Amino acid sequence: MEARLNVMASPVAAKAFKHIIAAGRALAESTVPASTRELVMLRASQINGCAGCIDMHTKEAAAAGESAVRLHLVVAWREATVFTDAERAALELAEQGTRIADAAGGVTDEAWANAAKYYDEAQLADLVTQIAVINAFNRGNVITQQPAGEYQAGQVH
Questions:
Q1: Could you give all domains of the chain from N- to C-terminal order, each with its CATH number?
Q2: Could you give the CA distance from residue 136 to residue 157 in angstroms, rounded to a whole number?
Q3: Which residue, 134, 145, 153, 157, is CA-closest to 64?
Q4: What range(s) does the Carboxymuconolactone decarboxylase-like domain occupy (predicted)?
Q5: Could you give the CA distance from residue 133 to residue 116 in angstroms, rounded to a whole number?
Q6: Average pLDDT of the chain?
Q7: Which of 14, 67, 91, 126 might form a disulfide with 8, Cβ 3.0–4.6 angstroms?
């Protein structure tokens, strides 16, 4: 498979994507655990069907020590017993934040209140930003049909 377009070849698109990339890098400073952020990015990417981001975040999470069992079960996190309550709250926020068009009202008050039990205001801001950034990457990659499978952990960090 070959990508439809190299957005980085366009001066305007490349400039915009560099800002999105910088936003993603800034989130590495978050006090939300890196494993939680990877799980959130993986779940949003699964929902959006972004093969490139699924490839990237699965490999980054594994390189950071995440188990294969947990990575395989992200897609069915509600039924899986391997996630903490805090991770479940973050995954719910990611799902509802990603499925805004399907959610008839966006993120529910219940999902927000549940996340607020585990994350302080700064961490909630970080999670919201992480969800927004990964959704931007997902949409760009899906529209341009970016291929997956060749990513190596640490490649973009």
A1: 32-144 (1.20.1290.10)
A2: 18
A3: 153
A4: 23-95
A5: 20
A6: 93
A7: 14
- 80: which DSSP letter? -
- Cα torsion angle, 102, 45, 52, 119, sign: positive
SS3 content of the chain, % helix, strand, coil (to 5): 70, 0, 30
- Please list, residue by residue across 121-147, b when 16 or more beta carbons sit within 10 angstroms of its beta carbon and e when fewer do: eebbebbbebbebbbbbbebbbeeebe
What digits encode the pLDDT tens for the residues 57-88?
Answer: 999 999 989 999 999 999 999 999 999 999 99
Distances (CA, A) of 2 to 5, 50, 134, 155: 9, 14, 22, 19
CB atoms within 10 A of CB 149: 8
Spatial separation of the C-alpha atoms in residues 56 and 59, rounded to whole Å? 5
